[in-house]
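Data card: per-record layout.
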Amino acid sequence: MKRKIAHFFIDDKFFYAAKRQFESLEDYENRFFVISAHHQFKYLDRSSIEIINPNDLLKYIKDPSFCDILILHTLNSIPIHQISEICSNIKVVWLSWGFDIYNNIFPQYPLIKIRKQHIESVYPLRVRIRRLWNRMKRKKQELCAYYFGEGYGKRKEFENAIQRINYFSGVFPEEYDYLKKNKFFKARYFCFNYVGKSKPSELNKLSKLGTAIQVGHNGMEWLNHIDVFKRLIKMNLGDRKIICPLSYGNNSDYTNFVIKEGYRYFHNNFSVLSDFLPIDKYKALLDNVGYVVLNVKRQCGVGNILIGIRRGAKVFFPKDSINYRHFSEMGVKVFSIEEDLNEKELNTQLSDDEIRKNCELVDAYYNYEEVMKRLINSLNSIFQ
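The structure for this 384-residue chain is written out next.
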């Protein structure tokens, strides 16, 4: 008899990759759910998913016959306070998307803490003072809420939810090691990546590589775009294009600031990608990119990183970032912003052998067949 898997999602484009991957498994019966009081979605097709009214959720997840495995595609796909209510006979798997471990806000908190994630010095002094003052006010309010309001109880709900998780998969395996530092994190390791079927990398020749420099991959503040701009403006880059994808992010003030500063520094050589595009069109717009700079310390931007590596581009990270650790430990030749973001590295390209090795390494780990093997092994281990 087939094992039953219940998948819980939020409204997001990752849904379709996961649906294809899990529905290809012969030994499992899959159902896909969104918890919602309405039926309007930005990315999801109503016919491909079942909707559970929030008021009805408990009767599903408390029923031992509902499923054998319940998969949370992000921790937020089920209300935090109800995760601990899931029937004890059901195995709970959490597939993290990143923001649910790095960007939890009070009364929750980041499960992986990143030191100096934002580089404050890029802002004018008056802005830094205002931001500091707002943080101090917010901290005071949070302390009052924690000790005199519902903060303590809400935090315990959060920790109880994490403790209920049986299995965890991050975007990178290294994230599991970081999460284990939290005493209430009890989950075992699970391995999954959202990928589609694709051909092996078509290796680029050096003569075909572009010279444009991609800075960041979204409009989030922790990408620290301005710090990169300040480094690049000191170099003689000629008429090189600086390309900034800013098509998603939740801080319009920050993205407007990045756009304003980008044009101030680089004038007509600055280019912004501000619209969501199908992946093929997005890749086409990045065809001239030979250098990718992601000034982010948390795990972030894996899709853009893989596009860059498979194109043969040089990819730069902060040396103490999780991205740098993951890809360098894999054996991929990547570069640090602190030591390598200079005119020499931006005026030379990887050799054909280096490009070929980089592509072979990422294809070996991220190709569809290998990801599916790891998924099957992880699912099988649950019932051993």
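Known properties of this structure: The first helix runs from residue 14 to 23. DSSP finds 16 helices and 13 strands in the chain.

See the next section for split statistics.
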